[in-house]
Amino acid sequence: MSSAPADRPLDWRALVPADLDIIYALHRAAIGEAIRPEVVKPESRDFFAGILDGRGQMQGVFDAGELVAYGVLQRDLPAYDDPRPHIGAPADASVAKLAGASVASAYRGRGLQRALIAARVGLARPGDILFATSAPANPASWINLLAEGFAIRALVPYYGGHLRYLMVRDGSSIVPEATRLVLPDDSGQQMALLADGWWGTAARHGDEGAAILYVSGQRGT
């Protein structure tokens, strides 16, 4: 797959069941042969078929008719994916998950991952709690989610025990009274801060790479 000229517009549309083959092919190509579940959760063909059959929605990005990126918004969630117990939300609160995105290698660096986050936020229903999970070792994911208004609210084992940030966008905010910068590989300090009610709200870049700005303070809406 060759990259399109940067000034050539790409086409966006909702994906449908007839797109299943190209979606799964892009997913497999994007995660590569050496699957690292501690970084990216591999999905089955049946997962995408279920989303397209009504369990959620998918947005696709095309170049000259070729699928080059997609994003998943999932509404019908398995029990293990329920974020509400981790964030103190009511059991009947409406939730939707940004359940993964893939961008073809030739199209990376063009802001498509962040644009797909924004597109799926735009699909939210009033009152939805939007959430995503992101591996600490996958900064491209959590940096873009932070930039689109998601906050790290928990660090919990998912998908076979691999640690994931639980990142939430629910209309609430926090007025910082104290801040702390933490590297993503310091899981112990992050868990302690999160247990005390701190949120991870922004990415910062320094000599040691990307770090996360944690804040504590008064909550607002």
From TrEMBL:
InterPro entries: Acyl_CoA_acyltransferase, GNAT_dom. SUPFAM superfamilies: Acyl-CoA N-acyltransferases (Nat) (SSF55729). Residues 10-172 form the N-acetyltransferase domain. One of its GO terms (molecular function) is acyltransferase activity, transferring groups other than amino-acyl groups. This is N-acetyltransferase domain-containing protein. It comes from Azorhizobium oxalatiphilum.
